[in-house]
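Thread title: Can someone regenerate the structure for this chain?

I was given the following input by a collaborator and told the matching structure tokens would be attached. They weren't. Posting the sequence so someone can regenerate them.
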Amino acid sequence: MGKLMKLLKSQAVRQGIKQAQKHIVPLVKKELKKRKGLK
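Best answer:
Regenerated them for you:
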């Protein structure tokens, strides 16, 4: 049971990272565009 919970948690963490990346990447691109505009 403990191993199963660890496995589920690790999968949830990976999914969370994937979701975070989807949200972070557009924000980073926006920031880069702003910085290029300032230069």
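Residues 3-37 form one domain.
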